[in-house]
Amino acid sequence: MRWVITHRMMRVPRVLILYASITGNTQQIALMLAKFLDSYGVKTELVTPEIFTFGDLQPYQGLLIGTYTYGNDANIPDEMLDVYEWLQDQNLKGLPFGVFGSGDLYYGSNKFCKASLSFQNLLIKCGGESVYHPVKVDKYPDFDDDIQEIQKLACHLATEMKEWRHGVCRINKSFL
Ligand SMILES: Cc1cc2nc3c(=O)[nH]c(=O)nc-3n(C[C@H](O)[C@H](O)[C@H](O)COP(=O)(O)O)c2cc1C
């Protein structure tokens, strides 16, 4: 018997976007990522650590972690420390992931978005598959360059999940 796979039967990939934001800059990046992913046919779940149920990552085919940077030493914000600890116990082998965050260049290039970089390193250490470099935005994502970077991250993640939907990305190839 031959099986015919219809569009309806295709499994829609699901991405967890877990982020923290105080003044709304990182939240805006998260919302833009969700919008781009939605346009590529990828379902997203946007959550902050305060409302996130720390279960396992089994229901998700992709992961996006977003954070601002804070404190005297470019720290991970308190509310993301729980996320950091939780991730250390997860089996992330082969899970496509991306990291993003807002910071402020005023604090110097060594400290700029350092918390995002800490998550990038952790996720790689835990076996995740980085789909793109960390997207670091200076304050609010209102420049074209920022928006292109955000779109590229979404596109790379969507493309990485091609076993669920092939060729989902339809952005200007010159951005890639
Ligand atoms: C006390 C304090 C310390 C900060 N330290 C850093 C830092 O080390 N590196 C950095 O990139 N941004 C730093 N920032 C800037 C924030 O990360 C930045 O304002 C960011 O856009 C806030 O994101 P949110 O709007 O998502 O909360 C600091 C901000 C404050 C108030």
TrEMBL record:
Coiled-coil regions listed:
none
MF-aspect GO terms: FMN binding; oxidoreductase activity, acting on NAD(P)H
Xref: Pfam families: Flavodoxin_1 (PF00258)
Against PROSITE patterns, the record matches this protein to:
FLAVODOXIN_LIKE
- Show where the Flavodoxin-like domain sits: 15-158
Has keyword Zinc-finger?
Answer: no
Q: Which UniProt keywords apply?
A: Electron transport, Flavoprotein, FMN, Transport
Cofactors, names only: FMN
Q: Which family does it belong to?
A: Belongs to the flavodoxin family.
Instruction: Give the protein's function.
Output: Low-potential electron donor to a number of redox enzymes.
For this entry, the protein name equals: Flavodoxin
Q: Which organism is it from?
A: Suicoccus acidiformans
